[in-house]
Design brief:
The protein has about 130 residues and is an alpha/beta fold. It has one domain: Beta Barrel (OB fold (Dihydrolipoamide Acetyltransferase, E2P)). Helices cover about 30% and strands about 35% of the residues. It has a five-stranded mixed β-barrel. Helix 2 packs across helix 3. The model has no long low-confidence stretch (mean pLDDT about 85).
């Protein structure tokens, strides 16, 4: 009887450890494979954040969105769309040029009050 209790306790302990590990270290989100919650242009998204940033954050924060606009700057791993949307990529193809139209899919991580930019990460090019 005593040995049976030890086996049951060990089994429950192992299940608890597995559950705790999966809870603390969930699988990494793949934004490029997720379905899109919102599609809008850079001006519309920016205006929503300017008009009511708290409401816009509730709506867009941590959501997968597609933003379209014109490329206004390009760096090694990021681009800026319409001087308003900062898009961070894992790797960025160098075929893009300033003043070209683009649509980017990414996860909204918030609004930078200092730079007045909306930040997206894990971005991928739609067109």
């Amino acid at each position: 009887m005593h040995m049976r209790n030890k086996i049951i306790f060990s089994f429950i302990l192992i299940l608890g450890i597995i559950f705790a590990h999966n809870y603390m270290y969930p699988d990494h989100r793949s934004i490029s494979e997720e379905s899109v919650s919102y599609k809008l242009d850079a001006e519309s998204l920016f205006n929503e954040f300017i008009e009511d940033s708290q409401q816009a954050e509730l709506k867009y924060l941590d959501q997968t969105i597609v933003v379209s606009g014109v490329i206004t700057s390009i760096n090694a791993e990021n681009i800026t769309i319409s001087n308003k949307i900062y898009c961070q990529f894992e790797t960025l193809n160098s075929n893009f040029k300033v003043n070209k139209s683009i649509a980017v899919k990414g996860r909204c991580i918030g609004f930078d009050d200092l730079l007045e930019e909306i930040k997206l990460d894990q971005c991928s090019i739609i067109k």
